[in-house]
Amino acid sequence: MLVDLREQVNEAAEAAFRQKVKNGDIVFKLLASPFDELNFEFREIAHVRVSLDDTPLFHNVQDELERSLYSRVFKSQVNDYEKNVALYLDSNDAVHWWWRIVSRQGWSLQGWKRNKVYPDFLIKLEAHGDDARMLVLETKGKHLGGSEDTAFKKKLFEVLEAAYVEAGDVELFADRPGAMQFRIMLQEDNWKSELQSCLN
Q1: Hey, which residues does 131 pair with through a beta bridge?
Q2: CA dist 98 → 25, 45, 95, 125, 177 (Å)
Q3: Residue 112 contacts residue 17 (beta carbons within 8 Å)
């Protein structure tokens, strides 16, 4: 009975969320005047907890990251798949900067479920002409491809991407992005080509 009730509540919450987005009651914004407390600003210094023996993430042995928004990303902040994605982003000319969002500390998204969604990466891509571009990226192990959490995030990302096209307002930097993509990247054999298609 509890499982059935939870499913009904989730379905009703999703329907209400989608309707409010359609009506313009819920919009995708980081600047929300006159509600300044909803504004988001990047911190100049990000504090993360690391152990004394934790080491920064490098290319090869000692080649430092070039495109990370913050100067250091520690190995404890990423699993093996996230590490590979981070290094791929860092070496890709289509990426202006990338940010590994620390779970429950950084930027988040709110959908129709109670818990916030903390994507793994926020990426500013090089502009196409005058259009700035952003990519919100969630990475998932292959075994999580059919999970309830992945299905929810996929639906939420689709709603947010459509909402941004219609009425988004993001001012993370001087130029408002002309495109904001939301993607879930499964740990498949072809993940690099899938990611590259998002970056192009």
Answers
A1: 128
A2: 30, 15, 7, 8, 15
A3: yes
